[in-house]
Amino acid sequence: MRVSFWFVTIASLFVTCLITANIIAVKIIALAGLLVPAGIIVFPLSYLFGDVLTEVYGYAAARRVIWLGFACNLLAVVAIFVGGLAPAASFWKLQAAYNAILGFTPRLLLGSFVAYLCGEFANSFVLAKLKILTKGRWLWTRTIGSTLVGEGLDTLIFITIAFWGVIPAAELLTAMLTQWLFKVGYEVVATPLTYAVVNFLKKHEQIDTFDYNTNFSPILLSR
């Protein structure tokens, strides 16, 4: 597959949203009366850009970017961890703040990485299959439908791994439903933007991929 400027741009935005969301997720914000991690501000955009990649360039291209996002996020985590271990200058008194804001627990990291892979691959798979089923019509049905599945898996897996046994079951379920509905609502509101980006790319790239013969295994890096 040829690599164009626009493909690189969408892939870069995807990875940036992912890493940014993971960094700012440490802050809990009150949004419309709901308590959610600050990462929710930008994380749903990674699904929007993931939708664009699959819709325009196909599942195989999206698969490469999903693994690229995983590798970049892992690099960021390792760099932050090593930075925290490195001895601080004698005049620098912010080590506790660094650890509090940028520190990760193994359980949260595991939940984040597993949820990301499962959610993104499910999102891309569902969208690609729905595109074939709808013969390329009704874009909104596959962007929203894939988000329902992908964000649902992401939220379920992350909250279960990260907070099972820490938060009471009833509150855990409430947190899952709240975040899932918010993320899906985000996708619905952003649908006009998705249409605009998809239509622009299809026109300028002269490409509209249908995954009729694609191998959907998530572990491949090529068709």
TrEMBL record:
It comes from the Bacteria. GO terms for cellular component: plasma membrane. Its main location: membrane. It is a multi-pass membrane protein. Pfam families: Vut_1. It is found in: Cell membrane. PANTHER family: QUEUOSINE PRECURSOR TRANSPORTER-RELATED (PTHR34300:SF2). Belongs to the vitamin uptake transporter (VUT/ECF) (TC 2.A.88) family. Q precursor transporter subfamily. This is Probable queuosine precursor transporter. The lineage of its organism: Bacteria, Bacillati, Chloroflexota, Ktedonobacteria, Thermogemmatisporales.
